[in-house]
Amino acid sequence: MEENQYSNMDYWMNRVYKDGKQTHRNKCVLKSVTPVMEKIRSFVPIGKETTVLDVGCGSGNYTYQFSLLSDRVKGIDHSEYIFSKNPHKDIAMMDATKMEFPDNSFDVVFCSDTLHHIPEYEKAVSEMLRVSRKYVVILEANSLNPMIYAVGLLRREERLIITKPLTLRKISGLMEGADILFAKHVMSFFFPNALANVPEKMLDLFPKVRFVNAPFMPWFFLIAEKKG
Description:
Largest sheet: 8 strands, mixed
Helix content: 25-40%
Structural class: alpha/beta
Strand content: 15-25%
Number of strands: 8
CATH topology: Rossmann fold
Number of helices: 10
Shape: globular
CATH superfamily: Vaccinia Virus protein VP39
Distance between the termini: 34 Å
Number of domains: 1
């Protein structure tokens, strides 16, 4: 894979994962992840035999949560180093724009905070739809949010936030052949990369995660179901 924002390991190793710790049980992570998982389960039935693919699984914050529900969860990402932080075992190196799976391989295909690192994210979304048998779920940084936009300005590795902006409307438009079951923006003050060491008692003072119709929130969230 060519060197770009998606594959720059200096960034991931020295900034995001510099402390070398696993993050899937971090209190800030759980406060961010748990409401998303609850919302997914309200639309998507997930049992022990449900096949789930976590695209851009990273350190496994969501891979781990899905593995509590299903015994058939697989994660893919671009980095062996990041894999060392992921507690899940069934993970593989793979390009999200050229997945090595047959059509309709997974009941649920999930992707979180990954598309804004992929220059050709349209291909990645198309691949997610191709390998999904039923559901596609996307949680992504919202380029319309001032703080997210500032991150894109300040960090070269996040520059695609500006040069190829992602919005709920844009991703919804890529859901060809699927019905959108749920599409909202996410109001959350839990930023795990920045607040990982904040005491839980202080985190309890933060407003809870909410799903809202407000286009300038930090994230957007979409659940789609393939037709037919």
